[in-house]
Structure formats: structure tokens, C-alpha cells
TrEMBL record:
Enzyme Commission number, as recorded: 2.4.1.182
Catalysed reactions, as listed in the record: a lipid X + a UDP-2-N,3-O-bis[(3R)-3-hydroxyacyl]-alpha-D-glucosamine = a lipid A disaccharide + UDP + H(+)
GO biological process, one term: lipid A biosynthetic process
Domain of life: Bacteria
InterPro entries recorded: Glyco_trans_19
NCBIfam families noted in UniProt: lpxB (TIGR00215)
Job of this protein: Condensation of UDP-2,3-diacylglucosamine and 2,3-diacylglucosamine-1-phosphate to form lipid A disaccharide, a precursor of lipid A, a phosphorylated glycolipid that anchors the lipopolysaccharide to the outer membrane of the cell.
GO MF annotations, alphabetized: lipid-A-disaccharide synthase activity; phospholipid binding
One cellular component term from this protein's GO annotations in UniProt: membrane
Alphabetically ordered keywords of this record: Glycosyltransferase, Lipid A biosynthesis, Lipid biosynthesis, Lipid metabolism, Transferase
Protein name in the entry: Lipid-A-disaccharide synthase
The keyword Metal-binding is annotated on this UniProt entry: no
Source species: Chitinophaga parva
């Protein structure tokens, strides 16, 4: 059967790649075309667009790149129509994928959303559109099922895909240490525009901890020259590419940009500070629209403040120094975090998310492909 997957970020590429592997196990003849990244391509998908050409974050940034976004949208629709998949699988990336879902449903395609848009955080009325345009919603956070129930929209909680990914990473043999000093991991994100704002602030800490090595997790979408220009001549700063999990396995603490990386860091048991800073205009609008108490997935799942969040004007050199000192040197703080992280594992459960999601997707594609008369349909009826 034919599957068309769309992911627009590094985390979507990771989860999309595991989904592709599971789909191919359950449907060995699967023909998969995708928007995503290197991992989805390596898993066997035919890559149409790389996420580094798609990702625009923040209200101002989206407006400035609106023409490019609309061109990508038109190209995507044309490519789907030419491929004629049995099912559209939309992985997170809601600004783009919800529009594709609306178009796809109108064109008669089976639409499945894997990793729900964060409608519980802002613009809750988007659930109405989701209910009309998404045939199956596969959620990965335990509280999302109850959220959708109040909208009378049944969804399936498949588990969180990071659990299986990180369990596998933890089971890998120990590799050579990345440094002979204690390590502070810096995870500044994958988009140039966000990294250029947050990383210089994170790097201010290197001079305060000369006996530590600060190591940047370099996203595949970022060039060496770009990061080196931000690092300058600081002697205890280095970077690794494609080794984020190796870095987290060895880190004593981490400074992490908001997003999925905060959850990854916690699941590796690394004490962390969550860092967010956007353009003033984007932050102005976000503050008025977002309705949740926290920005970190760790705190949201736990429904309490587990990891410190330094947001916008709070993200300063002095505040980072205070929090990083606590993480590295205060034993009660480290013990409290480890206890909370253990509870986090328990809350997320042990479901094999990618396998369960693939089972549903393959089943839905099968139903779509076989017409009521038993003949095969070419994707679009």
C-alpha cells in the first residue's frame, strides 16, 4: 500500500523514522513518500522535502516567510495528488499539517494525525476542525485522551514514542567519554533563528564553570560554521553532531530549549533548565494565547513544576548561573529531580507507541484500499 507521511521538524523526523520501520514490518510492500529528514529517508521513505527547508517558528517569522510556506503547501498538494496514497499520515507540525488535513479530507483521502497538535495549550477551538478533517487522531501524551473526550471526539493514546527510543539508547554499549571533565549539555534547538538567540545566552555559563566542558548538541540542520561563529574562542566549549543521546548519557546537567528535547533530557535522568526566548512580538502574542501553566512537557505531564523554566526576560546570564549551580552542586535538588523523573517514566507508561501507531495506520490503509465491492481503489476514490 502507499503511504504519504509529513513531518516538519527534527523530532517529527525521529518519530516518523520509527513509524516507517514499523509500517514496513507490518506491510513489507509499503511504498512510502515523505516530508521529513535524514532519519525518515534512512528508514526507507522517499524524501520529498527536508524539514530544514520548512521550519519557521514564531508569529513574526511565519509572516515573513509566508510566501515560501504557501509555495510549499501548493507543492505538497500536487505531490500527494500525483502519488495517490492510500493514507495520509500527518506527524505533528500542525500549522502546515492541519491545512493539509483539511485539503486531504475534501479530496477524499484517509487522514491520520500522529502526535496531536497542542490544542489543549492554545486555540482549543481547532478541535472542531480536527473532528471534521482527521479520521484518526493518535495521541502520545496521557492527558490528551481526556481532553478530547470533553469534545466528544474519540482518540487513541498509543503511548509516547520517546520511551522506546530512549530505552533502546540506554541499552547501547558505553562509548568513549566525550570529555574528561564533567559535561554540561547545551541543546539550543534545530532552527537557526532560535539557536542564534538562545545559544549565546547558554554559552555565557562556560566562563563560570571552567572545570566543566560545555558540549553543544548540533542538529543536522545546522552548519559547523554557524555554530563556530557563536562559540568564538571559548576553550571549554565543543560540539557533537548526531550524538545527542550519547551526550545526554554522559551529561551532569543540561540547558535545553523548550520542546521535545526537555522530555528527552528528563528521560535520560539529566538535571535541566528549560530555556525559551523568542522575538518580542512573537512572545507578546504567545503569552496571550497560550493557556497552560508550563511550557515544558516534563512539567505538563507531571502537572507540577519539576524543572525550572526561564522564559523570555527571565533567560539571563545571572538566572542561568543560579539554576545551573543548583543542578551541579546542590544534592537535594538533584535527588528531588531524580525522584520526579522516575514518576515521569511511570506516567508515560511502557506502550510501544510506534508499533501501535503503525498497526492502526496499516489497518486504516487496508480498509481504504478495499472498496465495499472488494476491488482496489487507487488512494483517492
Amino acid at each position: 500500500m502507499k503511504y504519504y507521511l509529513i513531518a516538519g521538524e527534527a523530532s517529527g523526523d525521529l518519530h516518523g523514522s520509527n513509524l516507517i520501520k514499523q509500517i514496513k514490518l507490518q506491510d513489507p510492500e509499503a511504498d512510502i513518500r515523505c516530508w521529513g529528514g535524514d532519519l525518515m529517508q534512512q528508514a526507507g521513505g522517499t524524501l520529498v522535502k527536508h524539514y530544514r527547508d520548512l521550519a519557521f517558528m514564531g508569529f513574526v517569522e511565519v509572516v515573513m516567510n509566508l510566501r515560501t510556506i504557501l509555495r510549499n503547501m501548493d507543492f505538497c498538494k500536487q505531490d500527494i495528488a500525483a502519488f495517490r496514497p492510500d493514507v495520509l499520515v500527518l506527524i505533528d507540525y500542525p500549522g502546515f499539517n492541519m491545512r493539509i488535513a483539511k485539503w486531504g479530507k475534501a479530496e477524499g483521502y484517509e487522514t491520520i494525525f500522529y502526535i496531536s497538535p497542542q490544542v489543549w495549550a492554545w486555540k482549543e477551538n481547532r478541535v472542531k476542525q480536527i473532528r471534521e478533517t482527521v479520521d484518526k487522531m493518535l495521541c502520545i501524551l496521557p492527558f490528551e485522551q481526556a481532553f478530547y473526550e470533553k469534545w466528544n471526539y474519540p482518540v487513541e493514546y498509543v503511548g509516547h514514542p520517546l520511551i522506546e527510543v530512549i530505552k533502546e539508547a540506554k541499552a547501547q554499549p558505553v562509548v568513549a567519554p566525550l570529555s574528561n571533565k564533567p559535561i554540561v549539555a547545551l541543546l539550543p534547538g534545530s532552527r537557526k533563528q532560535e539557536v542564534s538567540v538562545k545559544l549565546p545566552l547558554m554559552l555565557t555559563q562556560a566562563k563560570h564553570f571552567p572545570d566543566h566542558q560545555f558540549i553543544i548538541a548540533q542538529a543536522p540542520s545546522l552548519e559547523d560554521s554557524f555554530l563556530l561563529s557563536l562559540i568564538g574562542d571559548q576553550p571549554n566549549v565543543s560540539m557533537v553532531k548526531g550524538q545527542t543521546y550519547t551526550l545526554l548519557k554522559q551529561a551532569a546537567a543540561a540547558l535545553v530549549t523548550s520542546g521535545t528535547a526537555t522530555l528527552e533530557t528528563a528521560l535520560f535522568g539529566v538535571p535541566e533548565v528549560v530555556c525559551y526566548k523568542g522575538s518580542p512580538i512573537s512572545y507578546f502574542f504567545a503569552k496571550r494565547l497560550i493557556k497552560v501553566k508550563y511550557i515544558s512537557l516534563v512539567n505538563l505531564v507531571m502537572d507540577k513544576l519539576v524543572v525550572t523554566e526561564l522564559i523570555q526576560d527571565e533567560l539571563t546570564e545571572a538566572n542561568l548561573l543560579r539554576e545551573l549551580t543548583l543542578l551541579l552542586k546542590d544534592v537535594p535538588t538533584r535527588q528531588r529531580l531524580q525522584a520526579d523523573y522516575a514518576e515521569l517514566w511511570h506516567k508515560l507508561g511502557e506502550k510501544p507507541a510506534s508499533r501501535r501507531a503503525a498497526e492502526i495506520i496499516v489497518e486504516e490503509a487496508s480498509h481504504k484500499r478495499i472498496s465495499p465491492e472488494g476491488s482496489l481503489t487507487p488512494g483517492k476514490p
